[in-house]
Amino acid sequence: MLNVKVVKMTKEDVDEVFLIEELVHPNHHWSKDSFYNEVANNLAYYYCVKDENNKVLAYLGCWHILEEAHITTLAVHPDYRKMQFAQALMIAAINGCYKTMIKYITLEVRESNIPAINLYEKFLFESIGMRKKYYQDNGENAIIMFTKNIWYDTFKNNFEKLKNGINKIKVAYDE
Q: Between β-strands 104-110 and 126-131, what pairing exists: parallel, antiparallel or unpaired?
């Protein structure tokens, strides 16, 4: 079992995050400067999964604005997919939402990205609409997904099950 930790992203992580970004999105990706700006942004909450050698394996970013969080990006290094890293990152992000009294979480996802859609549905995100030709690289549509109030028992109970359901990795969360 791989031991990993989920920590807040720092500017020291940006080079490794950017390498993953280029691997995952080779034709159209965020710039390194974008990540530096996000790490410095007071509204942004960014997290990394790191291995025992402090290597970044995955990352997630979100913004907290009033009572809503918006997940801006999530990527897992291709060599480390299907290891529950995305689930661990979602747990860290939602824990962060609880700490800042967020009520709702939203995101856009490519309509062809079935693994991501399945992950979000596991966390009780629902499709509420479509952004036509949203992605600049190929004009693909984005599905807009949203949670109901994360303070409701239905969400909280499901969230607890998902936290306890990580069994492929041993995760330490940086609180």
A: unpaired
Q: For position 80, which CATH number holds?
A: 3.40.630.30
pTM: 0.94
Condensed to tens digits (0 to 9), the pLDDT of residues 71-97 reads 999 999 999 999 999 999 999 999 999
Rounded alpha-carbon distances, angstroms, from residue 90 to 56, 136, 163? 16, 25, 10
Active site residues: 108, 120
The count of domains in the chain is: 1
Burial 138-172 (b: 16+ CB within 10 A, else e): eeeebbbbbbeebeeeebeeebeebbeeeeebebe
Full domain range(s) for residue 41: 2-173
